[in-house]
Amino acid sequence: MYISRYDTLEEVPTLYGFFAGPLGESPFSAEIREFLKQVENRPRDFRKLLLTVTFHPKPMESNIKVTIGKGTFVLLDASLFFNLEPPVIFLDELRRIRDKFQDTFKGQIEAELQLRNEMIRTAGDSATRLLLQKKLQPMLVEASLTEDFSLFLCKLGLSSAQKLLPAALVQRIRNSEVSEAHLTNLGKFLRRYGEVLQGKDSAFKDLVEKERNRRRQVNEQKERTRKLEEERKKRQQRRRRP
């Protein structure tokens, strides 16, 4: 089994085969067992899924869709619908299948790993250069205020890629079968970069807090406006009643 890091994929031992309950039974429903059987029988048909669980920092939050039983779900919805708790057991089964067919996917895993590492390395170099030029602060403020959810991190990575990476590298990332995973990793990298900088630069930390407070005030004003509008509509409705 591989675990994902920014700089490499490390192989660690894991139990193969279905994770069993206390009496040896599978923890999965019949639909999930059938789905995993399909993945194992036709791994090439599920290449994007297997690559996603390899490279995405939070695979269950990815947008990849799977057909299980009679329905099509994103993984998070599948987790809720089929009670995949904890989801790591389901993910480890997919990783077991990937490892079983490692010769089939070795070339693409190595290519995607190289692409991800080049992306992070280039972004880090560009960030350091732009930071010295005082041009990175707006991006890092945004990164520091981005919540640690894959959807937001992916959007952050997408919006930042063209500012930090050469056009050719951006296009390679867009063309990747796991583009979402790479962009989410880029967003996660930038968020961490901002966190580290706050610990080193008090002026930048103050800047982040100032923007955080400004956004909080804006949201509070929006909420007050919403409540006032609701009250206005209620008063109008009461006036119209006979």
Task: Outline the structure in words.
The protein is mainly α and 242 residues long. It folds into 3 domains: 2-105, no CATH class; 106-208, no CATH class; 209-242. It contains 10 helices and 4 strands. The chain has helices at 30-41, 47-55, 75-81, 87-100, 102-132, 137-144, 150-164, 167-175, 179-200, 202-240; strands at residues 2-4, 9-11, 65-68, 71-74. The strands form 2 sheets. Strands 1-2 form a two-stranded antiparallel sheet. Strand 3 (65-68) and strand 4 form a beta hairpin. Mean pLDDT is 88; it is low at 1-8 and 10-24.
Blueprint of the fold:
Elements lengths: L1 E3 L4 E3 L18 H12 L5 H9 L9 E4 L2 E4 H7 L5 H14 L1 H31 L4 H8 L5 H15 L2 H9 L3 H22 L1 H39 L2
Antiparallel strand pairs: 1-2, 3-4
Key terms for this structure?
single chain; 242 residues; mainly alpha; 3 domains; two-stranded antiparallel ribbon; two-stranded antiparallel sheet; 69% helix; 6% strand; flat
